[in-house]
């Protein structure tokens, strides 16, 4: 019997910054190197605020003369040879870019944080449903094989219920020496540690607690937060927050933190269950190993296992495979990182910003 031809998803890239480069380089990795045979990817258009930059990006990274360079994002939205767009602009542009893409009938994969607030996100979800296009936040960690294995072990019940977890992501962004207009510092671009780094501790809280079968997908019962703001521009340089889940007999909470003034912590994630611990190595956005410790009745470790992951590419391609499969199957959202999870994330961020007193400048939030 002849084998089915894999679906080839044709991508249009919105913006030519750092993450667009990383994503595109992974799109170009042969899917067979990660044992993927049912979908593949092709970059057909790149949009930038300048045609020269778009062409330079194509010449440098895509290296395919057939790819169209546009000096506007609209060119990509209107290109009939584009099935899905990837949005790699700063946070505060995501809502408008995603909305324009959806209105043009494109499937959308949008960088994290998917929007500035939950209201913007809910508005995009409604639009994607109305226009019947796939829409997802690019929370790439959720699709990596390591994360799926952590979920499988937790779901098996061998460790019992989770009770407490910690997740931290930090890096030194050198904020004293970068321009105030840099997206990490500029409030107009949603600067600060929470919106940039916060999606990663949050994704682990969602994997570890929200998705745990005992939680039955109940929403968090409480969020408490503290922020340290930099005097340079007033955005948060470090934020800590706790997300509690309480559903019947199930009660657990996640202590989460981010900072853009210190290096990262090790391990990045610790999920403590009644009968063991899972420790995920840093960096928590793309960890390459995790360790499971199993406890005996006295709470002592009787077995420890470490798993290490290697693959060709940098880990962004797994989410691209998910988009292609969902589009192929006519799904509007992913089962692994569906709208409920992004909405939970953005709702928690809204509350953390409220408690921390971080108000975005007028006009930045397009929906409130
Ligand atoms: N998933 C991940 O691991 C990861 C990693 C880093 C960043 N991100 C996310 O990706 C997004 C972009 O981050 P990045 O590090 O790639 O940023 P970046 O290097 O500054 O690139 C952003 C690009 O957006 C376009 N742009 C449009 N309006 C802009 C404006 N007013 N100011 C600056 N750039 C503007 C520019 O491209 P053109 O000039 O070509 O239009 C620019 O090159 C952020 O939301 C961030 O959270 C995700």
UniProtKB/TrEMBL annotation:
<dbReference type="InterPro" id="IPR050984">
    <property type="entry name" value="Gfo/Idh/MocA_domain"/>
</dbReference>
<feature type="domain" description="Gfo/Idh/MocA-like oxidoreductase N-terminal">
    <location>
        <begin position="9"/>
        <end position="136"/>
    </location>
</feature>
<dbReference type="InterPro" id="IPR055170">
    <property type="entry name" value="GFO_IDH_MocA-like_dom"/>
</dbReference>
<dbReference type="Pfam" id="PF22725">
    <property type="entry name" value="GFO_IDH_MocA_C3"/>
</dbReference>
<dbReference type="InterPro" id="IPR000683">
    <property type="entry name" value="Gfo/Idh/MocA-like_OxRdtase_N"/>
</dbReference>
<feature type="domain" description="GFO/IDH/MocA-like oxidoreductase">
    <location>
        <begin position="148"/>
        <end position="278"/>
    </location>
</feature>
<dbReference type="GO" id="GO:0000166">
    <property type="term" value="F:nucleotide binding"/>
</dbReference>
<comment type="similarity">
    <text>Belongs to the Gfo/Idh/MocA family.</text>
</comment>
<dbReference type="Pfam" id="PF01408">
    <property type="entry name" value="GFO_IDH_MocA"/>
</dbReference>
<keyword id="KW-0560">Oxidoreductase</keyword>
<dbReference type="GO" id="GO:0047837">
    <property type="term" value="F:D-xylose 1-dehydrogenase (NADP+) activity"/>
</dbReference>
<dbReference type="InterPro" id="IPR036291">
    <property type="entry name" value="NAD(P)-bd_dom_sf"/>
</dbReference>
<protein>
    <recommendedName>
        <fullName>D-xylose 1-dehydrogenase (NADP(+), D-xylono-1,5-lactone-forming)</fullName>
        <ecNumber>1.1.1.179</ecNumber>
    </recommendedName>
</protein>
């Amino acid at each position: 019997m002849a084998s089915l031809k894999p679906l080839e998803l044709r991508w249009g890239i919105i913006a030519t910054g750092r993450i667009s480069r990383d994503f595109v380089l992974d799109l170009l990795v042969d899917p067979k190197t990660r044992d993927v045979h049912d979908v593949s990817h092709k970059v057909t258009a790149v949009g930038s605020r300048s045609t020269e930059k778009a062409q330079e990006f194509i010449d440098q990274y895509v290296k395919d003369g057939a790819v169209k360079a546009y000096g506007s994002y609209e060119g990509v939205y209107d290109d009939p040879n584009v099935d899905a767009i990837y949005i790699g602009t700063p946070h505060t542009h995501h809502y408008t870019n995603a909305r324009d893409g959806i209105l043009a009938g494109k499937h959308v994969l949008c960088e994290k944080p998917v929007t500035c607030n939950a209201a913007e996100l809910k508005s995009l979800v409604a639009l994607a449903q109305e226009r019947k296009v796939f829409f997802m936040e690019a929370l790439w960690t959720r699709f990596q094989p390591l994360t799926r294995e952590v979920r499988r072990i937790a779901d098996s019940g061998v460790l019992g219920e989770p009770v407490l977890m910690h997740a931290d992501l930090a890096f030194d962004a050198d904020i004293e020496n970068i321009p105030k207009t840099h997206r990490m510092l500029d409030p107009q671009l949603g600067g600060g540690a929470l919106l940039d780094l916060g999606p990663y501790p949050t994704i682990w809280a969602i994997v570890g607690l929200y998705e745990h079968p005992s939680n039955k997908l109940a929403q968090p019962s409480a969020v408490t937060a503290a922020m340290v703001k930099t005097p340079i521009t007033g955005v948060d340089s470090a934020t800590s927050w706790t997300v509690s889940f309480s559903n019947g007999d199930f009660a657990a909470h996640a202590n989460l933190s981010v900072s853009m003034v210190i290096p990262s912590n090790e391990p990045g994630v610790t999920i403590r269950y009644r009968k063991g611990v899972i420790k995920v190595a840093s960096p928590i956005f793309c960890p390459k190993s995790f360790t499971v410790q199993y406890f005996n009745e006295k709470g002592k470790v009787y077995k420890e296992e470490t798993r290490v992951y290697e693959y060709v590419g940098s880990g962004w391609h797994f989410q691209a495979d998910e988009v292609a499969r969902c589009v192929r199957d006519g799904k509007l959202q992913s089962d692994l990182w569906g709208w409920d999870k992004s909405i939970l994330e953005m709702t928690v961020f809204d509350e953390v910003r409220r408690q921390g007193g971080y108000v975005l400048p007028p006009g930045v939030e397009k929906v409130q």
